[in-house]
């Protein structure tokens, strides 16, 4: 069976991709690893026989569509939105199974059984939890995880029969791959909750895979005789979501609503964190982390923050609904002035409904000097919507951001 591993990154995360690729190649000799670099068009890093670096255009995304996606989505959202594109491309090249891991995953053992499961079932999903957590008032709880989804899109595998699923996931992620939990979205991840209703699939129930800070209470990590184990079995992969290599004494810097259920200062966990930080530094983390994201600004130099990207998305949604292609791109020099006018006055495009304009106005009221001011967000929400909308922030989100109100309904304040 021909299995391919893969991940998706921006250029400043290439050290993470290298560590993930090294782990894959070590435990899956002869099976290649592919890296999609979302802000790469031409000068991609060198590829070798086993590790390939791909640009979005190389996997068949048209320049026009790519320009739109780069305008709509933040770097984190775009990384998620392009995932099904990469999986479909690699299957189209003849792979029997493709195993995707988030780039901040350290692969420490074989995933052959995951590839085999995907080849048989079409889709193999990794649940965030394998056992019910106790009702002890500590984090993570089922309600907290329900906000972001039952399954973790940081580990997913597909086989040759997954084309229908990938086409569906791609269509949903085209416009609706936002970190907007109040609108029912957590980038690409919440969509996976629907898979059990729509498609044949299997659930990966190996506790040694996709171990992360949110499931450590059910997966006992230990270090014995030079080997990391989980519940007594060899550790296969650890997902370092929220990890900072410059502060490796904590497995994550994401905050939860309640005190954590397990000791995050565990000796074995601390050793694993130091080991991963050393790998990242050896892969050039210090040099690569400062690489700028190429699509962080419009061609005119305006910063494309969360609100600016939501303006562009609203305009594209309205234009597509009307069959109108007049929306100026942030990256088109010939229409730079039009795009800047759209940001200055969204009404000027003549496309947006009053509801869309109201959504954007709410977002701008909350925006204060490029950051989200909690007091102003709260005032905006209380003034325009129902009270009591304050909700837990998704644990995977490193910075407080407000939810977006989209076609699905009203947003609410994040923490």
Walkthrough of the structure:
This protein starts with a strand and ends in a 31-residue tail after the last helix. A 7-stranded mixed sheet has the order 3-2-1-4-7-6-10, with helices on both faces. The longest helix has 17 residues, at 306-322. 34% of the residues lie in helices and 15% in strands. By secondary structure, it is of the alpha/beta class. The radius of gyration is 21 Å and the shape is globular.
Could you outline the blueprint of secondary structure elements for this entry?
Elements: E1 3-9, H1 14-27, E2 33-37, E3 51-54, H2 63-72, H3 75-81, H4 83-92, E4 97-101, E5 105-107, H5 112-121, E6 123-127, H6 142-146, E7 151-159, H7 163-175, E8 179-180, E9 185-186, H8 195-198, E10 202-203, E11 221-224, E12 227-230, E13 233-234, E14 237-239, H9 267-282, H10 285-288, H11 306-322, H12 336-344, H13 354-366, E15 367-368, E16 371-372, H14 374-384
Parallel strand pairs: 1-2, 1-4, 2-3, 6-10
Antiparallel strand pairs: 4-7, 5-14, 6-7, 8-9, 11-12, 12-13, 15-16
Helix pairs in contact: 1-9, 4-7, 11-13, 13-14
Q: Which shape, going by the Cα principal axes?
A: globular
Largest beta-sheet details? 7 strands, mixed
Strand residues, percent? 5-15%
The average pLDDT is 85
What is the CA-CA span between the terminal residues?
46 Å
Helix run count: 14
pLDDT below 50 for ≥5 consecutive residues: which ranges? 368-415
Write the H/E string, N to C.
EHEEHHHEEHEHEHEEHEEEEEHHHHHEEH
Total strands: the figure is: 16
SSE-based structural type: alpha/beta
What quaternary form is this? single chain
Strand line-up across the major sheet: 3-2-1-4-7-6-10
What is the alpha-carbon Rg in Å?
A: 21 Å
Overall helicity: 25-40%
